[in-house]
Design goal:
Helices cover about 45% and strands about 15% of the residues. The strands form two sheets. Strands 1-2-5-3-4 form a five-stranded mixed β-barrel. The protein has a two-stranded antiparallel sheet with strand order 6-7. The N and C termini lie far apart (about 90 Å). It is found in: Endoplasmic reticulum membrane.
């Protein structure tokens, strides 16, 4: 274990251990969400952290060779306040209180004060500032970039308008088909389904399933994807048959 200077802060190796435990995809340590001093935090049980440091997974060696070594590392996380020992409220399980005894015990809970790598947060902040500055300085852009931005915005508005127009036209066609024909006609039946962009326009059209409860309904893949198809369930069909038999008896 590397020597750590209490004045200079945690060593890189200790931060590496904290990053490993903090990332559940690497360590398998599943933290819960709680509230500590009015702030949302992630907390875990001490035994789970030790198990995460000593377990073997996919043939790889564990992070620590023994439980004693893992206990020492977790205690150092406590000493440098990367985690803090806390107690759960008996009535509100998510409410946490800091325990005055900041020693490690496998049967107690610990909340993360370490927030992981801040690189992505910093890059995201820089990106937001850059976008805002670029928008403010739009009049100073070269004419080529300004013209290109204008054409792109017009293209986006045109595509959005085309989508609305297509939705209105398909609805009008469906209403007319329902009035004229016994079943509705859907243009681009997958337009508003949870599919890819290209799949939204395939198939080109589909007929709505007939609404006859006395006969079994066979729905093609295209018709089932129409979104407006009505398929009678077994319970509805049974109820319809019972009603028909009752009318015959009367």
């Amino acid at each position: 274990m590397a020597d750590v200077d209490a004045v200079s802060g945690p060593s890189k190796e200790l931060v590496s251990f904290a990053s490993y435990l903090y990332n559940p995809s690497k360590s398998g340590l599943r933290a819960r969400e709680g509230v500590l001093n009015g702030r949302r935090v992630q907390y875990f049980k001490g035994k789970s952290a030790v198990n995460a440091l000593t377990k073997e997974e996919d043939g790889r060696k564990p992070r620590c060779a023994s439980r004693e070594e893992a206990l020492e590392w977790v205690q150092e996380l406590l000493d440098f306040q990367l985690i803090v020992r806390c107690d759960r409220d008996a009535q509100a399980g998510r409410l946490l209180r800091i325990n005055p005894m900041q020693n490690f015990d496998e049967d107690t809970y610990y909340a993360w004060l370490y927030e992981g790598s801040q690189i992505m947060v910093i890059l995201g902040g820089i990106g937001v500032v850059a976008v805002v500055l670029a928008g403010v300085m739009f009049p100073l852009w070269p004419s080529v970039l300004r013209n290109g931005t204008w054409y792109l915005s017009m293209l986006a508005l045109g595509l959005l308008g085309l989508l609305f127009a297509t939705a209105i036209v398909r609805l009008i066609i469906y209403i007319i088909s329902v009035v004229v024909c016994p079943q509705g006609f859907w243009l681009f039946p997958n337009l508003f389904e949870d599919v890819g962009v290209l799949e939204s326009f395939v198939p080109l059209y589909a007929w709505e399933a007939p609404k006859d409860p006395k006969q079994p309904v066979e729905v093609t893949a295209a018709a089932a994807a129409a979104g407006g198809a009505t398929i009678p369930t077994a319970a509805a069909a049974a109820a319809a048959e019972a009603g028909a038999e009752q009318k015959k008896d009367e």
